[in-house]
Each structure stands twice: as C-alpha cells, then as structure tokens.
Design a protein that fits this description.
- It contains twelve helices and 14 strands.
- With about 400 residues, the protein is an alpha/beta fold.
- Helix 3 packs parallel to helix 8, helix 6 packs parallel to helix 7 and helix 10 packs across helix 11.
- It is globular and about 60 Å long.
- The relative contact order is 0.16.
C-alpha cells in the first residue's frame, strides 16, 4: 500500500526542527517562513511545549469526554483571558474544518435556517459543509452541495445587505484575514456592517480565525482590529503548534444541550496539554507584541523592492504580489536559498507566515535571501516573459 497521491510534494524530507529552522535528511538547514500553513505559532520544538507534552504523556494521553478534564477547563479559562472573550464557551475539536462544521451546525440550530453567505477567494476547509462554502468548486464534490450558499464579492456591504434583508440567511462566514485567498484584509466598515445587519436579521456572524487567529496578526484575533464581536469564532492552526487541535468560541446566548455537539478526539488530555503550552508561551514571551513588531519590520523592508506590486497583511501574516507567478520563485527560494514560504490561490501572491516568535535577525536573514533570489530570478528568461 502507498499513500493516496493527492499532494504535490517538494523534494525535501524534514528530519529535525527547532525555532524558526528545519533540517532535511542531508543536514541542510532551512529558514521556515511558512510554518506548514501558519500552524507553527510559538516556534518549532519550543522547550516549554515539549515539556508539557512529555509530562502529559507520562500521565494520561486520552480518555473520552464523559469524564472530567481539568486541562480542558484550564485551556478554556486561559483562552478566554488572552483573547478577551471570557464570557464565551469553548468547544474543542481536531481541525479547522471540523471547527467550521460545528459552527455551521450551531448557527443552524440557533435560527433554524440553512442558507450561508461566504465570499470570493474564501477557504474554510475540505469537509462537507466547510468545502461547500469555500470558493473553489474543484475541491467540492456533488455530495457536498447540500444547502444553499452564496459567494459574494469581498468587502461589498451593498451585496451583503441585499441578501441579508431577505431574512432567510442562516450565517455569514468571513475570514479575519483571507489566508489561502492571498492575504486579503476585510475593511473595518464592512465588518461593522456585517455585524449590524446580522443582528438586525437574526443571522449568525461566524469569524473564521483558523489561520489569522492566535496572535498571528499582532492581535489575538484579526477581527479585533475592528470593534466587533461575532457570534462564533473558529480556531485551529496555531492553536496546537503542530498538534492537531481546533475549536469554536461560542457566544453566551447559545444554549448548550447534552448531545448537541460531540467528538471522540476533541479536547483530549494530550491535546489540551499542547494547547495550554501554546497559550502560556504566547503570554509569557509577549508574542503578540513580537508578531506586531516583526510584521512592521517586514513591511518596511519590502518597500526597498520596486518589483513588489502590493504588500498586504499585518504581523506574521504578510502577502506580497510579484509581477509573475510565484511557483518557480518559491522553488528557487527553497532549493537555492533555503527558505520556505507559501503560495496562495492567487498565482502571483507569496505568503509570508513565520512563527510569532521569529526574531529581528531572522527577518533580516529572510529579507536578504528574498532579495538575492529576486535579483537572480530577474536575470532569467522566464522573468522577461512575465515582465513584458
């Protein structure tokens, strides 16, 4: 038997990781400014993270959710404190897609509706309902199309109001910052309009903070740059620093009932140990502030490159548009300069997603490698093709 061949794989085999670096089987070192889709939040193999997991491995790895779990209580309390949502409840799951599935269920339970609004370039997961509200028909099977959903223009308050005034929309789902879609930040006025309209029409506002949350933008959640409070917030990615964890933050007006939601592996003892370690490191090392500073450093440094057409994002979630598709450029950046970056659904957009713990010196190393790669790339015939 072989693995199901659904991933285009780079010719790199990671054997070891630490901080902002990974090493392959040949001992070559790479600077990681991608973190496996923004998953690495506090740096690879952080000692406190390792210690917490090792300690929990010696105690209890798993037991089902019908027994008390003090660690889960601790995660919820610490998350409420750091995120400024202490009155919300936490339902822990295993992934971002599972978080979105449960958020949509909660919304539909609440107002008994089924229609969902999402936005162009959106990505919300690959499971049944999550993939249906993702703006990529190529990854949605016929069986996924089980309810009405509308994909509206990004930041269009007029289009959103026109649909919400019909009074039949279950939920509006918007990313705190679009990740795979190319690092597009929602306009504050658009978010405020969405919040106000949803309240007026009995529609549930879901903020997808799966990639943009957990301090990545310099605030705990990206939507906190705007003064709104969504009904539901989905989280994952950086929540476990590589351990598979996800969750939904649930506003107080949602009534919990036994059997309403459920999961076998969500919120296990080991998952909670990993989640708690991440929150503790974020707090103790003031990583939100560091993410903000390193983002400002990167954005300022990118100004020196006239080839960059657009710079978007904040903190450790930056997107830059180059005047050519970035696929070959990313490959050269990895192979020749030892730097991992990310792509997006927009062919010309490079995603920059280092850990929140990235240092100023590591940012300088990245910018130097980026500049050298760009200079070399410009000398190739392929660049002349794109720059005509």
């Amino acid at each position: 038997m072989k693995p199901f061949d659904v991933y285009p794989l780079m010719d790199v085999t990671i054997q070891r990781s630490l901080g902002s670096y990974v090493w392959d089987e040949k001992g070559k070192q790479y600077l990681d400014f991608y973190g496996g889709h923004a998953v690495i939040s506090i740096g690879h193999a952080h000692p406190h993270f390792i210690e917490r997991i090792q300690d929990q491995l010696k105690k209890t790895i798993f037991y089902s959710n019908f027994v008390q779990n003090e660690l889960r209580e601790a995660v919820a309390e610490k998350l409420g404190q750091l995120s400024a949502y202490p009155s919300y409840s936490l339902f822990m799951v295993n992934s971002g897609a599972e978080a979105m599935e449960n958020a949509l269920k909660l919304a539909s339970f609440k107002n008994k509706r089924t229609k969902v609004i999402a936005f162009e370039r959106s990505f919300h997961g690959r499971t049944s309902s999550a993939v249906h509200i993702t703006d990529n028909p190529n990854i949605s099977a016929p069986i996924n199309k089980g309810f009405e959903r509308l994909i509206l223009p990004w930041n269009s308050s007029d289009a959103l109001e026109q649909e919400l005034r019909k009074g039949d929309v279950c939920a509006v789902v918007v990313e705190g910052v679009q990740g795979i879609g190319g690092i597009h930040v929602p306009d504050p006025d658009f978010l405020k309009t969405a919040e106000n309209l949803c309240k007026q029409e009995g529609t549930i506002l879901i903020l997808d903070e799966i990639q943009s949350g957990y301090g990545r933008t310099g605030k705990f959640f990206a939507h906190q740059f705007t003064d709104i409070k969504p009904d539901l917030i989905t989280i994952a990615k950086g929540m476990g620093n590589g351990f598979p964890v996800g969750g939904v933050l649930i506003a107080p007006d949602f009534e919990a009932k036994y059997g309403l939601l459920g999961t076998t592996f969500g919120g296990t003892h080991l998952a909670c140990a990993a989640s708690l370690a991440v929150l503790e490191v974020i707090e103790q090392e003031q990583l939100l502030k560091n993410a903000q500073l390193r983002g400002e450093q990167m954005i300022e440094a990118f100004q020196q490159f006239p080839e960059i057409e657009t710079i978007r994002g904040m903190g450790c979630m930056i997107g830059i548009d180059l005047p050519f598709p970035v696929k070959a450029f990313r490959k050269e950046l990895i192979q020749e300069y030892g730097v991992f970056t990310g792509s997006s659904s927009q062919a010309n957009t490079l995603r920059i997603l280092p850990s929140l713990a990235v240092s100023s010196a590591e940012v300088e190393q990245f910018i130097a490698a980026f500049g050298a790669c760009l200079s070399n790339f410009k000398s190739k015939p392929i660049y002349e093709t794109f720059s005509i």
